[in-house]
Structure formats: C-alpha cells, structure tokens
UniProtKB/TrEMBL annotation:
Organism: Dichomitus squalens
Alphabetically ordered keywords of this record: Metal-binding, Zinc, Zinc-finger
Keyword Transport: no
One GO MF term: zinc ion binding
Chain positions covered by the region annotation Disordered: 1-22
Domain annotation C2H2-type: ranges: 47-77
Top-level taxon in the UniProt lineage: Eukaryota
The UniProt record lists the keyword Metal-binding: yes
Protein name: C2H2-type domain-containing protein
Database matches in InterPro entries: Znf_C2H2_type (IPR013087)
C-alpha cells in the first residue's frame, strides 16, 4: 500500500461521554495568567489509541504500543490517531 492509499483513522464526531472531574488545584490567578498557548506537532506529540473505542492519549507511538500490549493484548499498529506523522 502506498502512502497516498493509506489514510489516518478518524475520530467519530461524538466521543463517548465520561463524568467530568472538577479541577480543585488551579487557582483563579493561574487561569487569569493565560497559561495556555498554541502548539504544533513538533512541540506536543499526541498519539490516540482508537482500538476498540479506547481513545486514550499518549506522548509517543512506543507508549501506545506498550499500552496496547498490556491493556488490549494486541500488537496491532492500526487505529492510531496522531498529527505527528
């Protein structure tokens, strides 16, 4: 399969809902200080395990694969969503 034939997996338009967890550590001063900033793939690698609707986030492909072997008993390299490749 050539690079033009292979397509990255896509997230569904609606992800499964999970209960929200309240942030009890961030202060109003931290929020007002504007700690957020725009990032890009080279500064913030993101790999998402989309196997079996998992959608857990990881900082590298190696970490996704270790997770899959441990949690999914799989070494399948498909269904990884990323903006880094």
């Amino acid at each position: 399969m050539t690079g033009t034939q292979w397509q990255h997996p896509k997230l569904p338009s609606v992800l499964p809902s999970v209960p929200a967890v309240q942030d009890v550590t961030t202060t109003p001063e931290q929020v007002n200080a504007g700690m957020a900033r725009i990032t890009n793939p080279s500064e913030t690698p993101i790999y998402i395990c989309a196997l079996d609707n998992c959608y857990r986030l990881f900082p590298s492909r190696e970490r996704v694969m270790a997770h899959r072997k441990r949690d999914h008993d799989s070494e399948d390299q498909d269904d990884i969503i990323t903006w880094n490749e």
